[in-house]
Amino acid sequence: MLDAYDLVILDLDGVVIVGEQALPAAAAAVATVRQEGTPVVFATNNASRSASAVAELLTKVGVPAEPSEVITSAMVAADALADSVPAGAAVLVLGSDALASEVRRVGLRPVSSAEDQPAAVIQGYDPSVGWERLAEASVAIRAGARWVVTNSDATLPSPRGPLPGNGSLVAALRTALEREPDMVVGKPQPALFAAAARQRSASAPLVVGDRLDTDIAGAYRAGMDSLLVLTGIASRADALAAPAEQRPHYLGDDLGALTRPGVQLARD
Ligand SMILES: [Mg+2]
């Protein structure tokens, strides 16, 4: 399957790891992909961890990774923000320290109060966000700050089942403000995958994911081929019933599918 591609972009949860454990076939498959000379990028919608923290987690569970191989919605959102507000502008960070670091990396100034007159609000998943910070963001947005959201996943997986994700906190502000965010960056928007391909100068990337409505839909919008693995959310039946814009090119039981001849799905 790898012969046709010059980059493999891997979703994390349900593809390489589940919670804080590696999926059984993941380590061997990633090692084989690298041995064959194809680079990999790990692409995640979760904006709460830095690239270094993600690489550390992957390495700890037996899938060695470098920070430069990780791309997060926080990184791409900060880059997009830098293109739309003046250099050095104040940005209210409604999210984790990792998100604030990304804001700093692109030459913007993280703040936590609407009184600092931020040019933008950037919102990403952080389990410590509560009413006070949501209220502060709503004041800033009403005063004209641009509202950029790292991702809109309503839930995130956990060993206790789905828990409220960034999309659920975005929904609280959408309700309060009676408006939509100015920009949503994560999958199924194509920005994350496009940034990964650009970073590696790849012309034929393959996206691997476990969700049709984010990973596969995002690949379709980015104009990339995709492999759906059945170790996460979507089932075989889901794949077969998917609308055209969520239909993967290949289907595999697990990440080991990357190292075998592909089972290509009919596209029409
Ligand atoms: Mg996933």
From TrEMBL:
InterPro entries: HAD-like_sf, HAD-SF_hydro_IIA, HAD_sf, STAS_dom
Binding-site residues for Mg(2+), renumbered to this chain: 11, 13, 210
Swiss-Prot/TrEMBL keywords: Hydrolase, Magnesium, Metal-binding
Span of domain STAS: 1-84
Names of the cofactor(s): Mg(2+)
Binding site for substrate: 187
GO-annotated molecular function: metal ion binding; phosphatase activity
Key word Ubl conjugation present: no
Gene3D superfamilies: HAD superfamily/HAD-like (3.40.50.1000)
Top-level taxon: Bacteria
GO CC annotations on file: cytoplasm
Catalytic residues (positions): 11 (nucleophile), 13 (proton donor)
PROSITE patterns: STAS
Pfam families hit by this protein: Hydrolase_6 (PF13344), Hydrolase_like (PF13242)
Note on cofactor: Divalent metal ions. Mg(2+) is the most effective.
Keyword Hydrolase: yes
Record family assignment: Belongs to the HAD-like hydrolase superfamily.
NCBIfam families attached to this UniProt entry: HAD-SF-IIA
Protein's name in the database: HAD-IIA family hydrolase
Organism per entry: Natronosporangium hydrolyticum
